[in-house]
Amino acid sequence: MTAKKGKLFLTIIYEIKLKVNQVILWVSIKLGLVSSILIVPYQGFSNQKELYLAGRVIRDNRVKKSTPTDRIWQNIDKMFRRFNTVVIPHVQVKALFAGQEFFTKTNEEGYFEFKVAIDASKISGSRWQNVELYLVDQIIKGQGYVTAIGKVVIPKGTLDFGVISDIDDTVVPTGAMRLTEMLKTTFAKNAYTRVPFAGVSALYKALEKGRDGLESNPFFYVSSSPWNLYDFLIELLEVHAIPKGPLMLRDIGLSRTELIAGSHEAHKLEQIRKILLFYPHLSFLLFGDSGQDDPEIYLQIVKEFPGRILKVFIRDIHASRHEFVKRKSKEMAQYGIEMQLVEDTLAATRIAIENGWILPDGLEDVAVEKAINENATE
């Protein structure tokens, strides 16, 4: 099949998918299977002049928060609900922020984005600000008001640096190199039973505080996990007291041009570029793992943004990847940046202290938490 025919084929298949989605929505409404609509806002971010907030409008699948006592079948049921999505396309969403109104429409997959001009100097209070969201259009009878509160971070104060971190096999073990293990972990566990790597919370808290001990350094989590897992990952960060920050996930469904929309590498590069361009005067630490393409992705970022990356931390998750990381480290060294392969959070903490990025007492905090975490899993 030629490239032209391949693109035409994907376009046809994608249009069929959209028609199927329309039919599913129409039938679901007619049969009363859509009893309420949900606006799902994704945590956004702002600089001094522009605000970015995305989200999705879907049927309310009534996914309740997890508890420590949830059984495997309950975890599987929640995951099924997350992926059994009925999207609401082409509807208008209103945002209210700092006394201003903004409007946008969901796309054919139910996603919406706000990219709006603001004056952050006039906004007081916490670095996390609320954005009120309202669904303008009537979708079902007796719909009532459909509202949500979006959260946007506006970094304030003396910023030492920002942190961009992967999640899978960087913050929490996933087994991404072993498909069966990854599927079992994803569907059978919840935010309480999926335990992060020992000491991650203390390390990331220390980085958030930075050199002055104030929680001001912003965090961004860039992952190739699908948006369907957004609420689960937010809950995971909250349960394990890991600094919150915008999650930048991806839509893994069929698109007009790709069988799986957005490759792992392309998605992460696009999102990291977006962050670096949004904060042009801020340097960053990058955290990833050796399991997939993080070393290659971060090398490309170092090339594109000279002087913007302080250091790259790669969690060592498998010996088979040592040679690959070593090669990428040598290439990165040519640009004056070190890619450090680290065994655990203590190793990363020591390096951060040596470079003056966190306070010395952070080492004890990480060591204590790491010991507690490891004892709890024995």
TrEMBL record:
<dbReference type="InterPro" id="IPR019236">
    <property type="entry name" value="APP1_cat"/>
</dbReference>
<feature type="transmembrane region" description="Helical">
    <location>
        <begin position="23"/>
        <end position="42"/>
    </location>
</feature>
<feature type="domain" description="Phosphatidate phosphatase APP1 catalytic">
    <location>
        <begin position="161"/>
        <end position="316"/>
    </location>
</feature>
<protein>
    <submittedName>
        <fullName>DUF2183 domain-containing protein</fullName>
    </submittedName>
</protein>
<dbReference type="InterPro" id="IPR052935">
    <property type="entry name" value="Mg2+_PAP"/>
</dbReference>
<keyword id="KW-0812">Transmembrane</keyword>
<keyword id="KW-0472">Membrane</keyword>
<keyword id="KW-1133">Transmembrane helix</keyword>
<dbReference type="Pfam" id="PF09949">
    <property type="entry name" value="APP1_cat"/>
</dbReference>
